[in-house]
Amino acid sequence: MPELPEVEVVKKSLKNKIIDLSFRKVLINTNKLRYTINKDLNKIITNKKILSIDRRSKYILINLEKNITILTHLGMTGKFFLVDKKKIHSKTSFYYKISNRDKKHNHVIFFLNNDTKLIYNDIRKFGFIKIISTKDISKNKHLETLGPEPLSKKFNLGYFEKKASNKKKNLKNILMDQSFVAGLGNIYVNEILHLSSLNPYKSIKKLDIKDVKKIIYFTKKILKKSILEGGSSIKNFNNSDGKDGVFQQQFKVYGRNNKKCTKNYCKGIIKKSIISNRSTFYCIRCQK
Ligand SMILES: [Zn+2]
User: Where exactly does CATH 3.20.190.10 map onto the chain?
Assistant: First the structure.
Protein backbone atom coordinates (compact mmCIF):
# COMPACT_ATOMS: atom_id res chain seq x y z
CA MET A 1 0.00 0.00 0.00
CA PRO A 2 1.45 3.39 -0.91
CA GLU A 3 2.23 5.30 2.26
CA LEU A 4 2.83 9.03 2.68
CA PRO A 5 6.36 9.15 1.15
CA GLU A 6 5.24 7.18 -1.90
CA VAL A 7 2.27 9.50 -2.36
CA GLU A 8 4.49 12.57 -1.91
CA VAL A 9 6.77 11.27 -4.67
CA VAL A 10 3.74 10.71 -6.94
CA LYS A 11 2.70 14.30 -6.26
CA LYS A 12 6.17 15.62 -7.07
CA SER A 13 6.37 13.60 -10.29
CA LEU A 14 2.95 14.78 -11.40
CA LYS A 15 3.99 18.35 -10.61
CA ASN A 16 7.02 17.96 -12.85
CA LYS A 17 5.12 16.35 -15.66
CA ILE A 18 1.58 17.66 -15.99
CA ILE A 19 1.34 21.17 -14.55
CA ASP A 20 0.18 23.76 -17.10
CA LEU A 21 -1.14 21.05 -19.40
CA SER A 22 -4.85 20.64 -20.15
CA PHE A 23 -7.04 17.59 -20.48
CA ARG A 24 -8.17 16.67 -23.96
CA LYS A 25 -10.54 13.92 -22.89
CA VAL A 26 -10.97 11.18 -20.33
CA LEU A 27 -11.75 7.55 -20.93
CA ILE A 28 -13.32 5.63 -18.06
CA ASN A 29 -13.02 1.84 -18.36
CA THR A 30 -14.74 0.85 -15.15
CA ASN A 31 -18.04 1.57 -13.53
CA LYS A 32 -16.61 1.86 -10.07
CA LEU A 33 -13.46 2.31 -8.06
CA ARG A 34 -13.97 2.69 -4.29
CA TYR A 35 -16.70 5.11 -5.31
CA THR A 36 -18.61 5.48 -8.55
CA ILE A 37 -16.75 7.80 -10.87
CA ASN A 38 -18.69 10.90 -11.86
CA LYS A 39 -20.08 10.09 -15.28
CA ASP A 40 -19.58 13.69 -16.32
CA LEU A 41 -15.86 13.58 -15.53
CA ASN A 42 -14.97 13.95 -19.20
CA LYS A 43 -17.29 16.90 -19.66
CA ILE A 44 -16.13 18.60 -16.47
CA ILE A 45 -12.37 18.48 -17.02
CA THR A 46 -11.96 18.57 -20.81
CA ASN A 47 -10.03 21.68 -21.88
CA LYS A 48 -9.34 22.61 -18.28
CA LYS A 49 -5.78 23.55 -17.40
CA ILE A 50 -3.91 21.96 -14.49
CA LEU A 51 -2.85 24.79 -12.17
CA SER A 52 -1.31 23.08 -9.17
CA ILE A 53 -0.98 19.76 -7.38
CA ASP A 54 -1.04 19.26 -3.62
CA ARG A 55 -0.93 16.39 -1.19
CA ARG A 56 -2.90 16.16 2.06
CA SER A 57 -2.24 12.99 4.06
CA LYS A 58 -2.37 10.27 1.41
CA TYR A 59 -4.73 12.20 -0.85
CA ILE A 60 -3.56 13.95 -4.00
CA LEU A 61 -5.35 17.09 -5.14
CA ILE A 62 -5.05 18.13 -8.77
CA ASN A 63 -6.33 21.68 -8.98
CA LEU A 64 -7.71 22.84 -12.31
CA GLU A 65 -8.98 26.18 -13.46
CA LYS A 66 -12.65 27.09 -12.87
CA ASN A 67 -12.67 25.97 -9.23
CA ILE A 68 -12.32 22.27 -10.09
CA THR A 69 -10.21 19.85 -8.06
CA ILE A 70 -9.62 16.19 -8.77
CA LEU A 71 -9.34 14.49 -5.38
CA THR A 72 -7.69 11.11 -5.60
CA HIS A 73 -6.51 8.38 -3.26
CA LEU A 74 -4.43 5.41 -4.36
CA GLY A 75 -6.03 2.93 -1.97
CA MET A 76 -4.08 -0.34 -1.79
CA THR A 77 -2.81 -0.77 -5.33
CA GLY A 78 -3.52 2.47 -7.19
CA LYS A 79 -0.84 3.91 -9.45
CA PHE A 80 -0.50 6.76 -11.87
CA PHE A 81 1.88 6.51 -14.80
CA LEU A 82 2.41 8.36 -18.04
CA VAL A 83 2.65 7.09 -21.59
CA ASP A 84 4.01 9.45 -24.24
CA LYS A 85 3.35 9.38 -27.96
CA LYS A 86 6.32 7.07 -28.52
CA LYS A 87 4.64 4.70 -26.04
CA ILE A 88 7.39 5.26 -23.50
CA HIS A 89 6.02 4.58 -20.03
CA SER A 90 7.16 6.54 -17.04
CA LYS A 91 6.32 5.84 -13.44
CA THR A 92 5.42 8.49 -10.91
CA SER A 93 6.80 6.70 -7.86
CA PHE A 94 8.98 3.80 -6.86
CA TYR A 95 6.53 1.45 -5.19
CA TYR A 96 5.14 -0.36 -8.21
CA LYS A 97 5.92 -1.98 -11.52
CA ILE A 98 4.19 -1.36 -14.80
CA SER A 99 3.32 -4.66 -16.41
CA ASN A 100 1.52 -5.33 -19.68
CA ARG A 101 -0.36 -8.06 -17.89
CA ASP A 102 -2.05 -5.44 -15.71
CA LYS A 103 -3.30 -3.41 -18.66
CA LYS A 104 -6.86 -4.51 -17.98
CA HIS A 105 -6.70 -2.51 -14.77
CA ASN A 106 -6.07 0.78 -16.58
CA HIS A 107 -9.36 2.13 -15.28
CA VAL A 108 -9.10 5.80 -16.12
CA ILE A 109 -7.10 7.29 -18.99
CA PHE A 110 -6.60 11.04 -19.08
CA PHE A 111 -5.50 12.37 -22.46
CA LEU A 112 -3.35 15.48 -22.12
CA ASN A 113 -2.77 18.18 -24.67
CA ASN A 114 0.90 17.25 -25.15
CA ASP A 115 -0.08 13.84 -26.59
CA THR A 116 0.69 12.13 -23.31
CA LYS A 117 -1.70 9.87 -21.47
CA LEU A 118 -1.95 9.87 -17.69
CA ILE A 119 -3.18 6.45 -16.66
CA TYR A 120 -4.78 5.42 -13.40
CA ASN A 121 -4.32 1.69 -12.84
CA ASP A 122 -5.70 -0.05 -9.76
CA ILE A 123 -5.87 -3.83 -9.45
CA ARG A 124 -7.90 -3.95 -6.25
CA LYS A 125 -9.92 -0.82 -6.90
CA PHE A 126 -9.75 0.60 -3.38
CA GLY A 127 -8.53 3.94 -4.70
CA PHE A 128 -10.81 6.66 -6.00
CA ILE A 129 -11.12 9.68 -8.23
CA LYS A 130 -13.60 12.38 -7.28
CA ILE A 131 -14.37 15.84 -8.53
CA ILE A 132 -14.79 18.50 -5.85
CA SER A 133 -14.96 22.25 -5.74
CA THR A 134 -11.55 23.80 -4.99
CA LYS A 135 -12.96 26.34 -2.58
CA ASP A 136 -14.66 23.63 -0.52
CA ILE A 137 -11.56 21.50 -0.03
CA SER A 138 -11.35 22.18 3.70
CA LYS A 139 -14.95 21.06 4.17
CA ASN A 140 -14.52 17.82 2.24
CA LYS A 141 -15.46 14.77 4.33
CA HIS A 142 -12.16 12.99 3.58
CA LEU A 143 -10.05 15.97 4.56
CA GLU A 144 -11.83 18.02 7.23
CA THR A 145 -11.01 15.83 10.22
CA LEU A 146 -7.37 15.25 9.40
CA GLY A 147 -4.75 16.32 11.91
CA PRO A 148 -1.63 18.28 10.92
CA GLU A 149 0.83 16.96 8.38
CA PRO A 150 3.68 15.16 10.16
CA LEU A 151 6.26 17.14 8.19
CA SER A 152 4.67 20.49 8.94
CA LYS A 153 5.77 22.83 11.73
CA LYS A 154 2.35 22.34 13.33
CA PHE A 155 3.35 18.84 14.35
CA ASN A 156 5.59 19.88 17.22
CA LEU A 157 6.18 19.32 20.93
CA GLY A 158 3.51 21.83 22.04
CA TYR A 159 0.90 20.33 19.74
CA PHE A 160 1.69 16.77 20.82
CA GLU A 161 1.47 17.58 24.52
CA LYS A 162 -1.70 19.60 24.24
CA LYS A 163 -3.54 17.21 21.99
CA ALA A 164 -2.40 13.96 23.59
CA SER A 165 -2.54 14.93 27.27
CA ASN A 166 -6.12 13.94 27.90
CA LYS A 167 -6.13 10.80 25.78
CA LYS A 168 -5.94 7.28 27.13
CA LYS A 169 -4.51 5.67 24.02
CA ASN A 170 -1.29 3.78 23.64
CA LEU A 171 1.48 5.12 21.44
CA LYS A 172 0.74 2.93 18.44
CA ASN A 173 -2.90 3.96 18.36
CA ILE A 174 -2.29 7.67 18.77
CA LEU A 175 0.18 7.78 15.88
CA MET A 176 -2.25 5.80 13.71
CA ASP A 177 -5.07 8.21 14.60
CA GLN A 178 -5.51 10.35 11.48
CA SER A 179 -7.13 13.17 13.43
CA PHE A 180 -4.03 13.39 15.62
CA VAL A 181 -1.47 13.36 12.81
CA ALA A 182 -2.35 12.81 9.16
CA GLY A 183 -0.99 10.17 6.85
CA LEU A 184 1.17 7.94 9.04
CA GLY A 185 0.49 4.35 8.08
CA ASN A 186 1.18 1.11 9.89
CA ILE A 187 4.67 0.49 8.49
CA TYR A 188 6.01 3.92 9.35
CA VAL A 189 4.49 3.96 12.83
CA ASN A 190 6.26 0.66 13.58
CA GLU A 191 9.54 2.10 12.31
CA ILE A 192 9.17 5.41 14.18
CA LEU A 193 8.59 3.64 17.51
CA HIS A 194 11.54 1.34 16.95
CA LEU A 195 13.83 4.29 16.15
CA SER A 196 12.49 6.10 19.22
CA SER A 197 13.07 2.99 21.41
CA LEU A 198 9.50 3.23 22.66
CA ASN A 199 7.09 0.37 23.21
CA PRO A 200 3.94 0.59 21.06
CA TYR A 201 1.81 -0.36 24.08
CA LYS A 202 3.16 2.47 26.22
CA SER A 203 0.39 4.75 27.41
CA ILE A 204 0.80 8.29 26.16
CA LYS A 205 0.18 9.46 29.72
CA LYS A 206 3.54 7.93 30.65
CA LEU A 207 5.60 9.78 28.06
CA ASP A 208 8.11 12.37 29.17
CA ILE A 209 9.30 15.33 27.12
CA LYS A 210 12.33 13.40 25.90
CA ASP A 211 10.09 10.63 24.53
CA VAL A 212 7.84 13.08 22.70
CA LYS A 213 10.84 14.88 21.21
CA LYS A 214 12.19 11.57 19.95
CA ILE A 215 8.88 10.62 18.34
CA ILE A 216 8.60 13.96 16.55
CA TYR A 217 12.23 13.92 15.47
CA PHE A 218 12.16 10.37 14.08
CA THR A 219 8.76 10.84 12.42
CA LYS A 220 10.09 13.74 10.37
CA LYS A 221 13.46 12.12 9.80
CA ILE A 222 12.21 8.81 8.38
CA LEU A 223 9.57 10.44 6.19
CA LYS A 224 12.06 12.94 4.76
CA LYS A 225 14.62 10.23 4.14
CA SER A 226 12.07 8.07 2.32
CA ILE A 227 10.85 10.95 0.19
CA LEU A 228 14.42 11.93 -0.73
CA GLU A 229 15.37 8.41 -1.70
CA GLY A 230 12.18 7.97 -3.70
CA GLY A 231 12.74 11.28 -5.37
CA SER A 232 16.31 10.50 -6.34
CA SER A 233 15.56 7.07 -7.75
CA ILE A 234 12.71 8.39 -9.85
CA LYS A 235 15.11 9.22 -12.66
CA ASN A 236 15.37 5.51 -13.31
CA PHE A 237 11.68 5.01 -13.76
CA ASN A 238 11.53 5.34 -17.50
CA ASN A 239 10.99 1.68 -18.07
CA SER A 240 8.83 -0.99 -16.66
CA ASP A 241 11.48 -2.54 -14.48
CA GLY A 242 12.68 0.54 -12.67
CA LYS A 243 13.79 0.10 -9.09
CA ASP A 244 10.97 -0.63 -6.79
CA GLY A 245 10.41 -1.61 -3.24
CA VAL A 246 13.60 0.17 -2.22
CA PHE A 247 12.19 1.08 1.16
CA GLN A 248 10.68 -2.31 1.79
CA GLN A 249 14.19 -3.71 2.07
CA GLN A 250 15.23 -1.02 4.48
CA PHE A 251 12.65 -1.50 7.18
CA LYS A 252 14.34 -1.97 10.51
CA VAL A 253 11.51 -3.60 12.41
CA TYR A 254 8.44 -4.04 10.19
CA GLY A 255 8.03 -7.65 9.06
CA ARG A 256 10.99 -8.88 11.13
CA ASN A 257 9.08 -11.18 13.47
CA ASN A 258 11.40 -13.45 15.53
CA LYS A 259 14.52 -11.88 14.01
CA LYS A 260 17.26 -10.12 15.90
CA CYS A 261 16.88 -6.42 16.60
CA THR A 262 18.69 -4.36 13.96
CA LYS A 263 20.29 -2.01 16.49
CA ASN A 264 23.98 -2.86 16.89
CA TYR A 265 23.97 -2.58 20.65
CA CYS A 266 20.77 -4.56 21.19
CA LYS A 267 20.48 -8.32 21.52
CA GLY A 268 16.70 -8.29 21.64
CA ILE A 269 14.29 -10.20 19.40
CA ILE A 270 11.49 -8.61 17.38
CA LYS A 271 8.05 -9.65 18.47
CA LYS A 272 4.85 -9.43 16.47
CA SER A 273 1.49 -8.67 18.01
CA ILE A 274 -1.78 -7.11 16.93
CA ILE A 275 -2.95 -3.66 18.04
CA SER A 276 -6.32 -2.48 16.73
CA ASN A 277 -6.22 -5.16 14.04
CA ARG A 278 -2.86 -4.05 12.67
CA SER A 279 0.41 -5.98 12.79
CA THR A 280 2.76 -4.46 15.29
CA PHE A 281 6.46 -5.28 15.40
CA TYR A 282 8.69 -4.21 18.25
CA CYS A 283 11.87 -5.20 20.03
CA ILE A 284 11.12 -6.67 23.43
CA ARG A 285 14.43 -5.39 24.76
CA CYS A 286 15.14 -1.85 23.59
CA GLN A 287 11.60 -0.51 23.11
CA LYS A 288 10.44 0.52 26.56
ZN1 LIG B 1 16.26 -3.81 20.22
Answer: 4-139
Which residues does the annotation mark as catalytic? Answer: 2-3, 58, 278
In sequence order, the β-bridge partners of residue 131 are 70
CATH no. of 157-283 = 1.10.8.50
**What's the average model confidence in pLDDT over 91-119?**
92
Q: How far apart are CA 102 and CA 81, in angstroms?
A: 13
Per-residue pLDDT reduced to its tens digit, 142-201: 999 999 999 999 999 999 999 988 788 999 999 999 999 999 999 999 999 999 999 999
Cα of 171 to ligand 1 centre, how many Å? Answer: 17
Instruction: State the span(s) of the chain assigned CATH 1.10.8.50.
Output: 157-283
CATH superfamily name and code, 4-139: MutM-like, N-terminal (3.20.190.10)
Instruction: Report how far ligand 1's centroid is from the alpha carbon of 170 (Å).
Output: 19
Q: What is the pTM of this model?
A: 0.91
pLDDT digits (tens, 9 = 90+) for 255-276: 999 999 999 999 999 999 999 9
Enclosing H/E stretch for 23: strand 23-28
50: enclosing H helix or E strand:
strand 50-56
CA of 257 to the centre of ligand 1 (A): 12
CA dist 200 and 269 (Å) reads 15
